[in-house]
Description:
Layout: H1 5-17, E1 23-28, E2 31-38, E3 44-48, H2 62-65, E4 71-75, H3 90-104, E5 110-115, H4 117-128, E6 133-139, H5 146-149, H6 154-177, H7 191-201, H8 204-213, E7 231-236, H9 247-266, E8 272-276, H10 282-285, H11 287-302
Parallel strand pairs: 3-4, 3-5, 5-6, 6-7, 7-8
Antiparallel strand pairs: 1-2, 2-4
Helix pairs in contact: 3-4, 6-8
Amino acid sequence: MKLSLAAVLLLLTITAVAQQPGRLIDIENGRRLHLVCEGTGSPTVVLEAGAGEGWYTWTRVQPVLARTYRTCSYDRAGIGFSDVRAGRSVAMLNADLHELLRRAGEKPPFVMVGHSVGGILVRHYAERYPCEVVGMVAVDPSVEDFEAKFPAPADEAERVRAARDARRKQIEEWKVNGKWPEMDFHDAMPRELVKLLKPRTASAAWWEARFAESDLPDAKTPAAIDPELPVVVITATNWARPQWRTAERQASWMKARIEIQKELASRARKGQQVLAATSHHVQMEQPRLVIDAITAIVKQLTGSTPESSSPVPR
């Protein structure tokens, strides 16, 4: 995989120090979160990862954006290089992010970018801190009322419940024996980065954070979107079909995702939906789509044209 110069330099730095690439910021009585910020300018682009993931999920996006814009990614509590926290909810995680940015000296306005459950987090952040957020990009986002509008068949819902119960039991067993397995990463992740991070995934903190983020208690509470806010929703259209799901059910499920994300975009007066022929991790498989969406929002806000449009690895 060919990397941009900025990404290569970032990886060299990581390899050299064999530690976190960003800063550890004390946000609450010694509890620290890991923040990676690059570039200059305003507004600042804040990148929010999906469930159980951290700053690294933006490794094919952030270095390119940082050539032109100020960009920040981070690890939520218990993930990557960040310290754990007691309790976990959308409200708690957003309060963490707000305090992290404040204490790090990162000033609004912000363009919030969220992948998967990060899409829920950034919508709630914008609702809670409306004076800070001037634009939003949702990358194949989770949508709070998806299950209510498109309920799963009874057998599929039972399968999901059973899988969650099995994972909960598994985590309890790992707690007892102290043997936590390593997690997998997307194939597009640079191998040097996987080598750095994979051993860290074999921990109670990361597994428990990942499990909790798959079912946050307030994640189904809808967040209002300011109709005047520039919004782009990127929808992945090529999810792999699970073996237990019929092709017909997969097609209807995919259609439902496209429709509800289209409706999400329509909540903003000039909201746009962009379709991506990828699986869920659009930012890994077609980073240019994500970069272009973010760039379009910033250009709309500033009326400026970026000085460069450097190629992105595909």
